[in-house]
Structure formats: C-alpha cells, structure tokens
From TrEMBL:
Domain of life: Bacteria
Ranges in a coiled coil: none
One family name in Pfam for this protein: ETF
GO terms of biological process kind: fatty acid beta-oxidation using acyl-CoA dehydrogenase
Family: Belongs to the ETF alpha-subunit/FixB family.
Name under which the protein is recorded: Electron transfer flavoprotein alpha subunit
Required cofactor names: FAD
Keyword Transport among record annotations: yes
Binding site for FAD: 213, 239-240, 253-257, 270-277, 291
Length: 326
C-alpha cells in the first residue's frame, strides 16, 4: 500500500472548521514536495455528512470513522481508534490544525505512533532531502526549519498561515464509511456551554484594543478601556497570558485557543506577537502595535509600529485623540 498524507478534520455543527481547511491546503503543498495520496478523516457518531462534504465540495478522498457514543471530540476515544487505523492506512504524514483540540490530540497520537511531532507549522520548504516544516521559536523572533527523522510524523498546522482550501476547486473525491466498535471510556462528555452574548462582541467590534503582559499589572487595563472608549463599536481583548493570569476572562482572548477577529483597527498594546496570538488577528484591517522591544515579533504584522513603553505612551495617545475629537 502506498504511503498517505492524512488530515484529521475538525467539524462543528456540521461545518468543517476553517483551521482544518488550512490544514488541507498545507497537505496539498506537502503532496507537491512528497507525492502521496491525501485522505481526510473525520470521526464521530455520525461523521458521514462531513466526509461527504469533504469529497463533494473539496475534492478530497475522505473516510468517516464512526462509533456509537462518539459524540464530539474525546482524546481518550480518538486515541483508542486512530493509531491502528493510521497504521493500516500507511500514514506517512498526519496533519491536523494546531487548535486547542489538535494540541491536545497531536502529541499523544505521535507518542502512540512512535512518530515525530512538529507543532506550529507555518510554512513548507524543501531541499535535496525532502520537505522542511517551518515554525516560529523564541516568541516569533526566529524561524526554525525541521525535518522528521522518524518513519512518520504528526504535524500541527498553525492557523492563519495557509489559505483555507476552497470548495469546488477540483473534481469530487470519494467518501467511504467505516463503523468501529464502541470504545470503553473512563470519561464522559458534558454538554458544550454556549458562549455568552457579551463574548460575541469581539467578533462584532470594528476596533479592538488588545492587552498583553507588557502592561505590567492588571490595574493598567483601565488605560485600554479608556482608549477603546474613544471609538464606536470597540472592545478590549487580551492575549492568552493575560487571560491565563486572570486579568481578563477567556471570552476576551484572541488567538488560536481564543477568538479569531477581523476588526477594521487592531491596537496591540504590550503584546509580543507569538504566532498563536497573531493567528487570531491576522484578518484585521489596520494593525497598530505598541511595544518597547524593537525586535518584537508583533511588528512583523503591524502597519504602524510604536517603540515605546505602552503604559507611558497610551495616556499621551488618549489625550491626543481626545483633543482631535474636540
């Protein structure tokens, strides 16, 4: 059996996750460098509609892996089903999006497969020895190129760096269905909690003022709120470290494990620019970054770069904007 490129596809409420569509694009580029058939795998109690969607609209050969009681994502169940299946499929490359689900599943799956695990892949290159995966290190200040030395590899594709795979881009693929025995589990699924309406305001905001650890202490968030108040339809957001530290609730987090936003104006205050955060705000129209480190990775994404201490600069910015507004 020829070796394959396998994409583990996430879906939510019957829709393929955008980050998984980016992983499919990465797989297509990998196929150019390391020729092999691509197979999309979707798992669930009723995974067949998603597999059909992958085949009909995205031209991907797809496999629906179904088991009774497999409702939603379960690392315990997926790890019980996938290793043997991937071995049978001769999977050389196993790709998935570097979402919270992918970051939970990927390393454990690689360990079960005795495979390499490459996290945060944001690009692909090649040399005479084959594909190289590119990822950011040291907070995005450097790029690292990796080649797995093992027979197989699990690759977590960083959202925001590959264009989502377009529907109708080629002929339809073939969808197949495989029923598997129910997995004996020691954990149970709980109903997903719906997001509050307040949290949804980040997606609707035209201006977002995002706070990072560069603010120094949570009391300085008042500066962010004062700045945001100068704009209609604005909101204050935070990086993951800010939310991890309890300065803001997680519903205000921007990034891979938070929300993805596309405001007209994004003001990044004291944010270093780690790829996990940048992936959530890459769709912003105009990006203004304020950071006292001239080498901060966020400046690679910004249209306007301000090298200043954010706590000292923001009051002056607020005063100037208020003066302009009269």
């Amino acid at each position: 059996m020829p070796q394959r490129i396998v994409v583990i596809v996430e879906s939510h409420s019957g829709r393929i996750a955008p980050a998984s569509l980016e992983a499919i694009t990465c797989a297509a580029r990998l196929q150019e460098l390391s020729p092999a058939p691509i197979l999309g795998i979707t798992l669930g109690q009723d995974a067949w509609p998603t597999a059909q969607l992958l085949a009909a609209e995205h031209g991907l050969d797809a496999l629906a892996v179904e088991a009774e009681g497999l409702v939603g994502y379960s690392a315990e169940a997926w790890l019980a089903l996938l290793p043997e299946l991937l071995g049978q499929l001769a999977a050389r490359w196993v790709l998935m999006a570097a979402t919270s689900q992918g970051q939970d599943l990927g390393p454990a799956l690689a360990a079960r497969l005795n495979a390499a695990c490459i996290g945060g892949a944001r690009g692909l290159e090649a040399d005479e020895d084959g594909p190289l995966f590119v990822r950011e290190v040291h907070g995005g200040k450097l790029l690292q190129r990796l080649r797995p030395l093992s027979a197989s590899a699990v690759v977590l594709v960083q959202p925001g760096f590959f264009a989502p795979h377009l529907a109708g881009a080629g002929p339809a693929g073939q969808a197949t269905r495989q029923r598997m025995a129910a997995v004996a589990r020691r954990t149970a699924d709980l109903p997903a909690a719906g997001q509050s309406q307040a949290g949804a305001s980040l997606a609707d905001a035209e201006v977002i003022v995002a706070a990072g650890r560069g603010l120094g202490k949570p009391e300085n968030l008042s500066l962010m709120r004062d700045l945001a108040a100068l704009f209609p339809r604005s909101a204050v957001a935070g990086s993951r470290p800010v939310c991890d530290d309890g300065w803001l609730e997680y519903r205000w987090q921007v990034g891979v494990t938070g929300q993805t936003v596309s405001p007209k104006l994004y003001i990044a205050c004291g944010i270093s620019g780690a790829s996990q955060h940048v992936a959530g705000m890459r769709g912003a129209g105009l990006v203004v970054a304020i950071n006292n480190d001239p080498q901060a990775a966020i400046f690679n994404e910004a249209d306007v770069c301000v090298v200043e201490d954010v706590v000292q600069f923001t009051p002056a910015l607020i005063a100037s904007l208020r003066a302009l507004k009269g």
